[in-house]
């Protein structure tokens, strides 16, 4: 049987529910790191099952990097307004926006395949899948735009200096 303190710690670190944390600890014979992997794998399985569900809600998230020279606008979608209003969904949007600001991916597909800047053992797609597993809804990164001070946009020409 799993120790209550281990269950609490696992829940805090993964966001898993009480029963999921307990089950993962039992499957891993009390090994916290193995239990995290069990929860992570369960989240990926849930994400795959939900991947064909339609996403019509969500929001546009704006992020300005601390130096005020890089900004990101990002559209993150989910199935319901209820999930779009959760802290977990907002946190995911912020993390993805920070990734875009720092790594400057060329496309959504490239972004999804990038190693997550806070944990190189997972990709951005893995990060999204873990939140899908936690929230129980399909989540999709639709698009993003990155702005950098002084950088020209596609098709834009520099104005001549006077």
TrEMBL record:
<dbReference type="GO" id="GO:0003746">
    <property type="term" value="F:translation elongation factor activity"/>
</dbReference>
<dbReference type="InterPro" id="IPR036402">
    <property type="entry name" value="EF-Ts_dimer_sf"/>
</dbReference>
<comment type="function">
    <text>Associates with the EF-Tu.GDP complex and induces the exchange of GDP to GTP. It remains bound to the aminoacyl-tRNA.EF-Tu.GTP complex up to the GTP hydrolysis stage on the ribosome.</text>
</comment>
<dbReference type="InterPro" id="IPR018101">
    <property type="entry name" value="Transl_elong_Ts_CS"/>
</dbReference>
<dbReference type="GO" id="GO:0005737">
    <property type="term" value="C:cytoplasm"/>
</dbReference>
<feature type="domain" description="Translation elongation factor EFTs/EF1B dimerisation">
    <location>
        <begin position="71"/>
        <end position="149"/>
    </location>
</feature>
<keyword id="KW-0648">Protein biosynthesis</keyword>
<keyword id="KW-0963">Cytoplasm</keyword>
<dbReference type="InterPro" id="IPR014039">
    <property type="entry name" value="Transl_elong_EFTs/EF1B_dimer"/>
</dbReference>
<dbReference type="InterPro" id="IPR001816">
    <property type="entry name" value="Transl_elong_EFTs/EF1B"/>
</dbReference>
<protein>
    <recommendedName>
        <fullName>Elongation factor Ts</fullName>
    </recommendedName>
</protein>
<comment type="similarity">
    <text>Belongs to the EF-Ts family.</text>
</comment>
<dbReference type="InterPro" id="IPR009060">
    <property type="entry name" value="UBA-like_sf"/>
</dbReference>
<keyword id="KW-0251">Elongation factor</keyword>
<feature type="region of interest" description="Involved in Mg(2+) ion dislocation from EF-Tu">
    <location>
        <begin position="80"/>
        <end position="83"/>
    </location>
</feature>
<dbReference type="Pfam" id="PF00889">
    <property type="entry name" value="EF_TS"/>
</dbReference>
